[in-house]
Amino acid sequence: MRKVIEVRNLYKLYRVGDEFVRALDGVDFEIYEGEFCAIVGTSGSGKSTLLKVISGIMKPAKGSVTVNGKIAALLELGSGFDGDLTLNENIYLRGAMLGYTKEFVTEKYKEILEYAELTEFENRAFKQLSSGMKSRLAFAISCLMEPEILILDEVLSVGDAAFRAKSEATMMNIIKNGCCTLFVSHSLPQVRRLCNKVLWLDKGKQIAFGDVNTVCDKYERYIQTVTNMQKIQ
User: Where are the alpha helices (DSSP H) in the chain?
Assistant: First the structure.
């Protein structure tokens, strides 16, 4: 299989007052074509920072990231959209930001609106949508634009149960077509259903990387231990 993402000895620092905090501390892994890798960890573990570094939004303090393929990244709800523009205008704007031609976006336009279940809202301003509607639109654009690498930050957890089921089915079809996917999730059942690899981060450090069930089992035991300690305190 073709190697799509290679992360080597990655460090990322944040400045807090007069001190530097390591958001990423020696992260090292690789993802191949057609693989679906989840990133798990408690709040502040560096998950979103890692996705931003891989997407090119942030630069690491040390280490390297090699990406082979066109990325469609959905990192924050509403990112890459203009709240004052209509859905129609935003679809073309987002498509241009992802590097697609106007002709290609036009070809996909109707399919995107229908998938997101927002056809009747195409002339409404983006800021007037609910969070669930924004998420559906962002997901539809990212997935239906035929990316080679899809990077998602918790977006599969937004929306009603029917749309979550549809989005999971879409993800599986994307993977079958060879797309590499990297996403953050706090739902271990979802991770076990979708993924073949898991990266576990804690306070910026890589705790484990590998087989989905092996890493999820270790992470579940860790969470249970932390929860029990909190109950005692």
Answer: 47-55, 87-97, 102-116, 131-144, 161-176, 188-194, 212-232
